[in-house]
Specification:
The chain has helices spanning 92-126, 130-135, 139-149, 171-182, 187-214, 216-227, 241-256, 260-271, 277-292, 298-303, 306-314, 317-329, 335-342, 351-362, 367-388, 393-407, 416-419, 428-435, 439-461; strands at 7-12, 15-20, 154-156, 162-164, 346-347, 409-410. The protein is mainly α and 467 residues long. The protein has one domain (94-461). It has a two-stranded antiparallel sheet. Strands 3-4 form a two-stranded antiparallel sheet. It has a two-stranded antiparallel ribbon with strand order 5-6. Strand 3 and strand 4 form a beta hairpin. Helix 7 (241-256) runs antiparallel to helix 8 (260-271). It is globular, with a radius of gyration of 23 Å. The chain crosses the membrane at residues 105-125, 190-213, 220-240, 260-287, 308-328, 351-383, 395-413, 419-437, 444-462. Pathway: Glycolipid biosynthesis; glycosylphosphatidylinositol-anchor biosynthesis. GO terms for molecular function: alpha-1,6-mannosyltransferase activity; GPI mannosyltransferase activity. Its main location: endoplasmic reticulum.
Length: 467
């Protein structure tokens, strides 16, 4: 037996520490894992050898993980070789996974209820309808019009710019139209229903990713952090952010657990939801390429690992399909990008955003420019922390792509915080740090941030500009 079969080493940021390894878990020196699955992170115990560890997920080339279809982390050695409760019954694994995620979902729902209550109180004081702010303003009006009338609506502005509803991807309007057709809900209310349901699915997916890679405590903290973002109120609006984040999170989870066909299908649906769906496609493609290229296994994949190639083939269909359809409709290969240019959007490598920040820095009172510069620096620092923590490749690719597409795009600079909502992997370093605190301190920090976020969201939505 390898002398490291009883003890392993896991790396915490800044130091190495020893943890107790289950005798049922293969020694890491003899098993090569495609992705790093870390033990749960929590408050540092008084003993240098904590008893709670997570067994790694063992993968074999060309096969699904040797675990249940939904990975359930083990935080007690006494349960290491037992199935989750109810796993033997039809749907039992999903129910067990839902029970495991229940604390995270309840806490996330609490953040959303808090935000809605503060918005309603603020709206009553300001004489505005919270329902209208959430369902019938800004982009939600464009989605509702597409659901009711289809594509083809265009606005010509006085400055010569042209705003076409072809800039909006179709999955959310399709769902709004379908729900309103079979229920008494109006199209705007159907949009709110989609947002409410998919925000919970997104929270579940974010928890599943955090739980799989870092343990349940980090998964819960990560989910709540995503809910208390300063612009988290968008998750409750008739916008596409919640729908997209749900599809993206579960697609990344499917890649981590080697469910390649599911990863491709979810990536394709994400590509029908928002332009940033390209980030999910990149996560699937790059991870699959790394999976196949080092050993030169393309020919073998054609015979055995067909699911990898199937996932790669399916993933870009949604994004490419819509962009191609817009090109055909506008009689231009670059039709979709021309539509985006009409809105003042596009990709310029961040030059326009840098000029915008520079303009704020050279004109008094300078506070806005300094705050924005610090926010961008913090985002970059968080992503560097993700790299230093050796996050799994799908998380690094997806999170990095969302950051690049949001920060390096021109136009609508006030909307960039909203565009960064799907970048949940960037929050993982903060979730790990908070998970190591005592539960009371973690609750105090997250509760304080949640209150501040709810107040800011109410003030933000009562402003004049689009979120």
């Amino acid at each position: 037996m390898c002398r490291r079969s009883c003890y392993g080493h896991r790396r915490r940021p800044g130091r190495w520490s020893t943890f107790r390894r289950s005798p049922f878990v293969p020694c890491p020196s003899s098993v090569r894992l495609p992705y790093a699955v870390r033990p749960p992170v929590g408050p540092r115990p008084s003993s240098p050898r904590p008893s709670a560890v997570r067994p790694p997920v063992v993968h074999r080339p060309g096969r699904a993980p040797e675990t249940s279809p939904i990975i359930v982390a083990v935080t007690d050695l006494a349960q290491a070789d037992t199935a989750p409760p109810g796993a033997g019954r039809p749907g039992g694994v999903a129910l067990a996974a839902l029970r495991r995620a229940a604390p995270a979902l309840l806490l996330y729902a609490g953040t959303r209820v808090l935000g809605l209550v503060v918005l309603a109180v603020w709206g009553a004081a300001a004489g505005k309808s919270a329902h209208q702010l959430l369902s019938a303003r800004w982009d939600s009006l464009w989605y509702a019009r597409i659901a009711e009338e289809g594509y083809g609506y265009t606005i010509h502005l006085a400055d010569g710019s042209v705003h076409s509803n072809l800039a909006f991807f179709p999955l959310l309007p399709w769902l709004e139209r379908g729900i309103s057709a079979v229920t008494p809900l109006s199209v705007p209310d159907a949009g709110l229903a989609v947002s409410s349901i998919t925000s919970l699915l997104a929270a579940w997916g974010i928890f599943a990713v955090g739980d799989l890679v870092y343990g349940r405590r980090v998964g819960i903290t990560l989910t709540v952090l995503w809910g208390v973002l300063p612009v988290g109120i968008v998750q409750s609006m008739a916008y596409s952010e919640s729908l997209f984040t749900a599809l993206a999170a579960w697609s990344v989870y499917a890649v981590l657990t080697r469910r390649w066909v599911w990863a491709g299908v979810l990536a394709a649906l994400a590509g029908l939801t928002r332009p940033v769906g390209a980030a999910v496609v990149a996560a699937v493609w790059i991870t699959a390429a790394v999976e196949l290229l080092p050993g030169g296994r393309w020919r073998q994949a054609l015979r055995q690992d067909w699911r990898v190639l199937a996932g790669m083939a399916i993933a870009p269909l949604g994004w490419l399909g819509y962009v191609t359809w817009v090109g055909i409709r506008t009689d231009s290969l670059t039709g979709y990008f021309d539509v985006q240019n009409g809105w003042g959007n596009g990709f310029d490598g961040g030059l326009a955003f840098a000029a915008f920040i520079g303009g704020l820095l050279v004109h008094p009172p300078f506070v806005a420019g300094i705050a924005l510069l610090l926010a961008v620096a913090a985002l970059l620092w968080l992503y560097v922390s993700c790299i230093r923590q050796s996050q799994p490749l799908p998380l690094l690719v997806y999170g990095g792509a969302v950051l690049v597409l949001a920060l390096a795009a021109k136009g609508y600079f006030g909307s960039k915080p909203r565009l960064l909502i799907p970048a949940f992997p960037v929050l993982i370093p903060l979730a790990i740090a908070l998970a190591r605190l005592r539960p009371a301190r973690t609750a105090l920090v997250l509760g304080s941030v949640g209150l501040a976020s709810a107040a800011y969201a109410a003030w933000w939505l009562h402003g004049s500009g689009p979120p």
